[in-house]
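REQUEST ID: PR-0412
SUBMITTED BY: lab tech R.K.
PRIORITY: routine
TASK: structure prediction, single protein chain
INPUT:
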Amino acid sequence: MDIKEFAELLKAKSGQIDDLLARKMPVFTGRLAKDHYQDNFRKSGFVNRGLNEWLPAKRLNSGATSAAANYGTLLSGRNHLFSSTNYSTSPYRTVVFNNVPYASAHNHGETVHPTVTPRMRRFAWAKYYEASGGGKKGTGGRKKGKNSNQTNNNDAAQFWKNFALTKKKKLSIKMPLRPFIGESEELNEKIISKHETELRKILNS
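STATUS: complete
OUTPUT:
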């Protein structure tokens, strides 16, 4: 096939090619991106020129045996951050996003300034006892167990205990940089490969 014949083929297939670019490829791209970014959670790192591992969550080194204490970094029983990674499409365009309020803080390693409310203190106590091994709930909303009077040297447990006991109305917390959405050579290669495969299907049909 010479250049003239190829040009005529492209002209004859122009409608199908435009439909591919405008309607189908944005969906293919979105699916590939969502799968790629969610796989970052499973791998506990960001895949771009290989796996760039995240700083592990402190609870993973807490020694606690509960299921909640052993979920992977940025994962939980609800997997809210993981499942909120999604995409939207429009002609010739794909947007990948995560609308969870704290998503950006994790993805970019931002410093957050939460207001300390009674509800947050209760949550902090729950996380403290989760990290330190749990126990029965006692008076004042706290838990008592056989180790409740022992000093807990666990960093994660100490963090949540300090959070629960702080007298400050606002905190300043530096979130570790744990990107899960962003530029990735491996993802770009998947998208280009898919694009080429679908284009060949049209030209060879």
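NOTES: DSSP finds seven helices and eight strands in the chain.
REVIEWED BY: pending
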